[in-house]
Structures are given as structure tokens and as C-alpha cells.
Amino acid sequence: MHRSGIELINLYWEEVWNNGNLELIREICASPIVRHDANEVTSLTHDQQIARVAAQRTRLPFFTHEVLVADEHHVCSVWNMTIREGGERELCGIEVFRVEEGRLSHCWNSGYIPGLWGRDGAEREAREPAILPSLSSIDTDWIQDILTSVDKSTPRVGVLQSVDRIGNGTLSETARVVLHYNADPENYPTTLFCKFNRSTPEIDAANKRVGFYEREINTYSFLRDHPDISAPKVYFAATNPDTGATNIVLEDLSTRTTPGDQVRGASVEEADAVVRALSHLHAKFLGTEPSDWLFDRQPRAAMFHDSYRIGAAALKEFLGSAVDACDYELIDRFEQLYLDWVNLPVGTKTVLHGDPRVDNILFEAGPSGIKAWLIDWGMTGVGSPQFDLAYFLTGSVPVDMRRQHDRRWIAEHAAELAKASPAYDLASAEMMFRAQAVGAACCNRAGRAYRRALGTRCRASDHPRSAQLRRRSRLGCLRRHTLAFYNVTGVAAPSWLTTPKRKHHGSVS
User: Fold this and answer.
1) What residues does the CHK kinase-like domain cover (predicted)?
2) Which residues does 54 contact at the CB level (< 8 Å), separation at least 6?
3) Most buried by CB count within 10 Å: which residue of 54, 113, 131, 298?
4) In the predicted model, is pLDDT for residue 230 greater than 90?
5) Is it true that the peptide bond before 32 is cis, omega within 30 degrees of 0?
């Protein structure tokens, strides 16, 4: 009398695999038994089956299993396996066997899946997400750990549809992750934005100097408790102090926003939105004092003075004759005044974005108008609220538009801050804006110096389109900043600033 499918499968897992009775294979399996794996079919004789099991048993696997369904011709079993030798590991799978003449003749194998099959009523174990070395290491388990650490009710992440690289900046590489759940995804993210650090000796040295990565980690951790700030929701932000690896996982805004265009500059409506976002940030944290994680330029004045000089030289090499000689003269003159500027008293301080160029901003159009999302928080600092405002308006808004609207924008910004501190007045705001407008350009020069030091200048021979766009972006930004310089000298300029003569206009900057 032939054994049933249930009898055969019980002997297969318990006697052959767990107890090592390998000769039993000759009784319960056909020769050959045909294995059906993904994209492959393999026929194994008794001797080949015995050799295969013997090789795998050196790691002391232990199986538990459950028969889900069985009839006269087939048996389906789900199994869990714990490897006890050579590094403990848990795997699971499902196999369907065909039964012919009392033997297992065919096997359809799901493959070995990390983890154990879930049990009804069992709560998912929450694990601390690992810090990965690169975007290529992203998998379903890591995404699951991140989402579960934020919301334990997150369904199982069944499939990562794609991990699409979408950028490779000076300091980081980024990707958009598309995922699917084993349940209704309505209340859970179906895409995520991942930002990992790049690591070279030059970048690592610059980060040690300035702390871009740690500051952005700290900023997103800080903003987690302030969802009203116009920044993407953070799901995970951590760094490995031993390896320097940094992982940031954010809400993906790409499907509903448009990135800012540094070449074109911001429109009036976009600038309105940025002023609102900065006003809310500055008003909420008005009165913030310096702390370890907030960038403060004054203690680093000498370092940034050096960076300014290096950056000015790099800029001349990069833009050449496209820039007027008097503009280069202005840049050189301000180098002598840099320390005076950075050490100016700034009055009441607040939390700053620190680098609010228009290409660090995403714009979302909605029924009530445009909303600005602030991204790339690696230079988050503390200082005058007018620094961010001047940095954005003088570097990212077309000059004629800025001249027409800057007084309104400064007034709206000051009015919002006055709600938090009634002593904050418009006259003081305008005067501080003038001083900070001067400093915006020097920060742009310092940033250019870092890109030069890190070896990330775009070479036209390698990337002609990127080189052209970057050149246009730098040129547009420089022209906006230098024209702001000239305007400052004509309207209640700070007494320590003198510049070459050029026509000025009646705007605040």
C-alpha cells in the first residue's frame, strides 16, 4: 500500500531534513525528482538528492512545517527554517509536491525567503532600521523596518517596484522608491525619497569641517516635532559614526511639486510662497540661541573667509569673461570686508534654513495658491531672520522683479515676526536686510569653493549639457547678487561697505 501525500511530506521534513535519515530519500522520492524553481527546472537522481541535502545539513537547518492542502495527487506545505550553524538565519518558503505511486515526483519551490511565516494574532516585531552603505542595499525588509518604526500598523511591504536614482549631487545621491503593500495602501506612503551621503576623502574632510550630514540629520529629527514647518515628513534620519554612512528617508513630494529653477529664477507667486514659508519658520523659532547642532557663521568666520577667497578664484575660472570686470572687482573688495560683515551684531536670532536657493525649494500648486517646500537642510543655522530672506530674494528672484516687490516681501516677513515679538519693527528689518543682502553673495562664493575642493566641478568635455546649465545657473545667481550689492550702496548702505560705482535703484537692496 502506497504512503499518502501527508505521510510523505512529514517524513521528508522531519526524518530526512531534521533527523538526517538521508537514505529514506530512496523510499519517499522518485528518481529523478523534478524541481521547478523560478526560470529553471532541475532533475535529481536519488544520489544527487542525498548529496544536496547532506551539503545543506552542515549548517544544521531545523524545519517546522504545516500542510495547507493535500489530496491523492498533490500536497502543499509551508515551512519555516532556522539555520543554527555558520551564522543563525531564519528563512521560510512554500512547496507543492506531486505524488505518483507513493513517491514525491515533482516539487514547485517558492525559493528561500528571509524571515518566518507570520502567525494569526502575532504582532510584528519592530526592529531598529539598519544604516545602509549605499542605495543599492535598499530592500523590502529595510523599508518595512523604517515604516513600522514610525507606525506599527503599517501593512507588510510586499514588493519594491523600483528604486530609481534621481540625482547625484555634490554631497549625496538620491533615489525614489516605489512600493506595494499586501493590504490597502490608502493611509500609507506608496513612494519614498531616499538620500544617502557620498563618500570620498575630499567630501569626508569637508563634512568633518562643516558637518553637513550630521546637521541635516539633526534638523530632520528636530522638525519631526514641528509638522507645520514647510519641510518633507521624515521617516528615518541617522548616521553611523563608525563608517560615516548617512541615510535619510523622506516623504516623496515629486508627484505633486515642481522643483525651483535657478536659471529662470522664481516667479512672483513662487517668491510669495517662499516668503510665507520662511516667515513662519523664523517667527516660530524667534529668540533661538546658538547650540551645537545649529550652524553659526561667526565662530567659523576665519574658515569661511578662506573659503570665500578660494571660491572667488574658482568663480573667475568658471565664468571667465562672461562677467564684467567691475563685478569681479566688487567680489575682490568684499573679501577685505568679509570679517566685518560676518561679525556684525544681528539682533534677535532665529533658526535659519541657511541655503534657501530656489533650487532647494519645491513648489506645490493648490486651490489656495502655491506652497513652498524647503528641502536640503544641511546648512541649518542660527542668525538674523533677514539672512534667509536676503539670500533667497537677491539670489533667486529676477532683478527687476525683486526691485519691484522687495519692500512688500520684507514688510510681510517683518509683520509675521512681529506677531511673535512685538518689538520686531519694519525699519530695523529693512536695515538688517541690507546688511544680509551683502552677505548672501559671499555665502554663494564659499559654496563654490567647497565644490572646487571636492573636485565636483562639471567638465564640459564629460557632461556638456550639465556644464552649460550649471554655468547659466551660476551666472544668473552672480548677476542677481552683484546687482543687489550696487543697490545697497545707494540706499542707506552700511557705513563699512564701499563699492565701485554703478547705477542703483530705489529698492531696499
Assistant:
1) 248-423
2) 22
3) 131
4) yes
5) yes
Domain ranges of the chain: 5-114, 135-248, 256-490
Task: State the Cα angle at 355 between 354 and 359, rounded to 5°.
Answer: 155
Architecture of the domain defined by 5-114? Roll (3.10)
Mean pLDDT, the chain, as a whole number?
84
Q: Could you give the CA distance from residue 226 to residue 351 in angstroms, rounded to a whole number?
A: 13
DSSP, collapsed to helix, strand or coil, labels residue 501 as coil
| 65, three cell numbers | 512545517
Grid-cell match 535657478, residue found: 262
Evaluate whether the domain defined by 135-248 bears CATH number 3.30.200: yes
C-alpha pair distances (Å), 58 with each of 84, 86, 472: 10, 9, 63
Average pLDDT on 473-501 reads 48
Q: In this predicted model, what pLDDT tens digit does every residue of 357-368 receive, in sequence order? A: 999 999 999 999
d(CA 371, CA 362): 8
Residue 247 has pLDDT above 60, yes or no: yes
Tell me how far apart the alpha carbons of residues 230 and 257 are, in angstroms, rounded to a whole number.
13
What local confidence, expressed as pLDDT, does residue 461 receive?
37
Quick one: average pLDDT of 181-204?
A: 90
Burial class (CB in 10 A: 0-12, 13-18, 19+), 126: exposed
Mind listing the pLDDT tens digit for each residue in 131-152?
Answer: 999 999 999 999 999 999 999 8
Closest CA to 140 of 129, 125, 124: 129
**pLDDT at site 496:** 40
